[in-house]
Amino acid sequence: MADMPVSDDSRFNHRQILRLAVPMIIANISTPLLGLVDTAVMGHLDSPRFLGGVALGGLIFGFIYWGVGFLRMGTTGLTAQALGNQDGSESRCILARAMLAALLIAAMILLLQRPVSAISFWLIGSDPVTEGLAQEYFNVRIWSAPATLGNYVLLGWFLGMQKVNYSLLMVVLGNLTNILLDLLFVVHLQMTVEGVALASVLAEFLAFLTGLGLLRRLLRGQPGRLHARQVLDLAGLRKLLAINNDIFLRTLCLIFAFAFFTAQSAIHGELVLAANTVLLNFQMFMAFALDGFAHAAEAEVGRAVGAGDKKLFRRTVLTAVLWSSVVAGCFALFYGLFGVAVVQMLTDLDPVRRIAYDYLPWVVVLPIVSVWCFLLDGIFVGATLTREMRNTMLFATLICFLPAWYFSMPLGNHGLWLAMTVFFLARGVSMGVVFGRRWRKICC
Length: 444
Fold this sequence. Notes:
Largest sheet: none
Shape: globular
Strand content: under 5%
Mean pLDDT: 83
Helix content: over 70%
Order of helices and strands: HHHHHHHHHHHHHHHH
Number of domains: 1
Distance between the termini: 12 Å
Structural class: mainly alpha
Number of helices: 16
Radius of gyration: 21 Å
Oligomer: single chain
């Protein structure tokens, strides 16, 4: 990237970044909306244990599915660079390699589901009733693996090809279906955690089939051809594996931080676990929305790198920083003004509400603190700076998050939220330092 020539291309502007970001924001917001519905349907049952069971079951699939999130992120960066380089055959090969990897990993997950389940519940630890509910959730949700991993690849490839409306259709259709099935299974058919899990499985497969239909339509008009020998090219496979390995380690650290947070919440009792689960929906909602600008940055930064366009790279970064900052500020303001009302909407359990109110200020602060690492994730993925992503995440997790939690243990649950805030701050600062050095080499 240091040798990219300066371009006179002036096509890039705010309209371009918003063209990519807005559909992804809409798509991304539908995902935490699904989480809000899951929380709400469980939070209005007669015991907080149902909410805790879904939280612990979802935590396990956070490990399983987030852990292979590299299938989406790595595919986007490589595809965007192939698009910028106008190499249609390579973009098809990237898709084929990633989809092959996704199906192999899904097969392994299904074959090893029993040991995965046993190890997961042993590591988490919980009261027997909540664990039993989480096990019911696990036994159903595990069968979504092929569709979920396939969706990661399709979403990543569509985004890299800047076909954001295809990604939007897949995600929104899947999540709206999931929400409707949640209401059908839990509210009308009186199912509990297994109803939430079954809704997720069916919705994932519907999204996957939709994505395959869109893919067939798109490939008809795309240049290039797919050759088996090129798909299995060792250099291409090594590049994919190296990028995915870095993103995998980075994602494991992220999952660990949230898993640790949830496990420590459970130690404080089922009411604190339920309250923290409700409040994490605030953070997830904000993160998925801000990821729309990160996804736009992935696509445009990748295209700039592939085309060797310094001006496009610089304008992408500056415009994404501006819009991300504005949206993060809006989230902080909204949470400060209406956070209590949102908590009341998510649960009618008074003990859970009272605890959530005590820790609400933390989720008001988090948008301002965490916006930078979300945006820089997108920039790093587009530029395939995955080794730097991995190293800064290791620093934030091992050097900042865990020591912050240890030394703030006397503060109880406030200390746990403080450690999470330090984690996001450390990610943003460390990535900013690394990117500042790269910026001078790339743009100056």
